[in-house]
Amino acid sequence: MEFEILKQSKKSRARIGKIKTSHGELITPAFLPVATQGIVKTLSSEEIKEIGYQAILANTFHLYLSPGSSLIKKFGGLHKFMNFDGIIFTDSGGFQVFSLGKGIEQGVGKVAKIFPEKEKPKPRGSSLVKIRKEGVVFKSPFDGKEHFFTPEKSIKIQEDLGGDIIFAFDECTSPLDDFDYTKRALERTHFWAERCKKAKKRKDQALFGIVQGGEWKQLRIESAKFISSLDFSGFGIGGSLGKTKKKMYQILDWTIPFLPNNKPRHLLGIGYLEDFEESIKKGIDLFDCSYPTRMARHGIVFTKKGILDLSKKKFLKEKSPIERSCQCFVCQNYSRGYLSHLFRAKEISALRFFTYHNLWFYYQFLEKIREKIYYGKI
Amino acid sequence: MEFEILKQSKKSRARIGKIKTSHGELITPAFLPVATQGIVKTLSSEEIKEIGYQAILANTFHLYLSPGSSLIKKFGGLHKFMNFDGIIFTDSGGFQVFSLGKGIEQGVGKVAKIFPEKEKPKPRGSSLVKIRKEGVVFKSPFDGKEHFFTPEKSIKIQEDLGGDIIFAFDECTSPLDDFDYTKRALERTHFWAERCKKAKKRKDQALFGIVQGGEWKQLRIESAKFISSLDFSGFGIGGSLGKTKKKMYQILDWTIPFLPNNKPRHLLGIGYLEDFEESIKKGIDLFDCSYPTRMARHGIVFTKKGILDLSKKKFLKEKSPIERSCQCFVCQNYSRGYLSHLFRAKEISALRFFTYHNLWFYYQFLEKIREKIYYGKI
Known about the structure:
Two copies of one chain form a homodimer. By secondary structure, chain A is an alpha/beta fold. The first copy, chain A, folds into two domains: 2-92 and 150-289, Queuine tRNA-ribosyltransferase-like (TIM Barrel); 306-378, no CATH class. Helices cover 39% and strands 18% of the residues of chain A. Chain A contains 15 helices and 16 strands. Chain A has helices spanning 45-51, 60-65, 69-74, 78-82, 94-99, 102-106, 151-161, 179-199, 217-228, 245-255, 273-281, 291-297, 329-333, 336-344, 348-374; strands at 2-8, 15-21, 24-28, 30-32, 55-58, 87-90, 129-131, 136-139, 146-149, 165-167, 206-211, 234-237, 265-267, 286-288, 300-303, 306-309. In chain A, the strands form four sheets. An eight-stranded parallel sheet of chain A has the order 4-14-13-12-11-10-6-5. In chain A, strand 1 and strand 2 form a beta hairpin. In chain A, helix 8 (179-199) runs parallel beside helix 9 (217-228). The A-B interface holds A 37-39, 41-46, 66-67, 71, 74-75, 81-83, 316-317, 319, 329, 333-335, 337-338, 340-342, 344-345, 347-349, 351-353 and B 37-39, 41-46, 66-67, 71, 74-75, 81-83, 316-317, 319, 329, 333-335, 337-338, 340-342, 344-345, 347-349, 351-353.
């Protein structure tokens, strides 16, 4: 993997970059749609490319459970398995340490207290993870079976999956964890980062290290320095990202100055539309988030004037598309009324149409930010 | 609507025909995908055309309940509402007299005893219909509200929907009904057929009459004669179609000689692949059935060698497409292994890919039969 900075803003840390891999190039700042189980839910690989996306992010933990990374290896890797010839990122499973652990237990996200009503998580029972120095024992949410994840195992799985960019195994902490716990977790994450570096065998994959440290300046700086010292190809900035958005941006301000300028930075699991510009100005190059696709499956679509909840009856009468100026095939072909009918009638196509539109909207949204950087506006 | 016979077989009653409407032409014999709620489940209108389909069939009863035919009228009719510029057939609601009535009560289909295991209906409680001479009281399966359907109301709704080809309101009986009941039901169907003829106001829609009469020769002939006498633009042959496939073909043999040769004949709600050639040889021009699309949503796909149940684990390892010789985008892009993974992982895209393939398969299957007629083979 190569990373080239094409344009550096003079007003902020924002930059336009180019990631070059054997599966093509990715212009940054970029948003990666999430293909958890080896598909962006409801869409085809062709549609992802058609919308404009050059890269996606798949989830190691999910693919390990089903259909299994050794099976995917036998197909020649995830690119061939899912027939996507663009760039594939795989996460490390570290996020599931949180999402299946304290995320479930506490009913909280990586940034606490920012959920719109439909998305508000609730405590759903007890944690499915046990964290040890050696690694993490996961209980599968599907069949309850236990799986032991170590840094070495995460790398092995990611090598089997064959993504272009892979991540070091980390412990993603909760925004409700205290300083002492977060510090101990960070020690594990750093220990695991070194082990991941050592475990990696394949030369054709780029390994990104992950900075943790919760909402504490001291820990974030310590982490940024340590992870930077290990010569990773790029960096993820992982949650917890504090209790508010303000804190999240503070965390970026603390962290990014200690990361080398010539390597890409990925703000893991973010974001909402309002997160992008500010994070990019603070030096972020990459984002991934299931938000636009998940919202679509709840009937929520994005427009320049805000979100619309097409599950609502009032939209049935509307003959206009989701957004008049939108060039996506959904807006070119279907009315809000029809789309609302499909969703209310539980037609699967509605979920697909909303997902397509939302990802189109996100792509255009990032494109506008790239233009702003290009023209020196941010 | 115009109907032209392009080629009449010398070996059977099979013929190649052309139905001409203001929304284009349809070459028969043809299969119509079912767009129950104004969409072929999981697909887009564009994909239906892309596969090759020039016509679809939508369900009057469902669209009346949701989103309502008056709403669709305000959008300029179903073509505009669903953005499909091909030919739209709408059924009359008569099938729901059966499917929500004795179909539910007895757990039976239009042809009894022919269901593959996954599809076998079971008695699901008590009937949701009350049949009177004036019309039928339906209890909505969604909210339990009662709706009174008369022939006049069925026509009014179908005029609001604006399909190119509409059907007279009939009573679709059960294969378990006896002669006496079926005879009384037939009297109602004939009475309603006359009322439909009178009620119809729009000149730009073609009205098809429906022949009923269950599995009794006397009743089928009586019905074919009576319905033929009313100068409909075409004919539906409705269920019940007996207890076996053999009986179904017998029914066609009794009925079709009494229908005028120069008008299209639609075998309503059929079919399975094995039904087509035989029915076409007996003089059928049109079919509709939710079978290929419903099977797709159960993980079942069609191949020349028979069906595959891709929900089965054994397919996970298979690198070949559903069918090597198939030119559909699913077979061109994805392996059985990947598709099986998607289905097993409950990914919506799987349902969509299977539906696309099955409808492609059905289209090609009918194409082959049209060729056989063209080359004088059947």
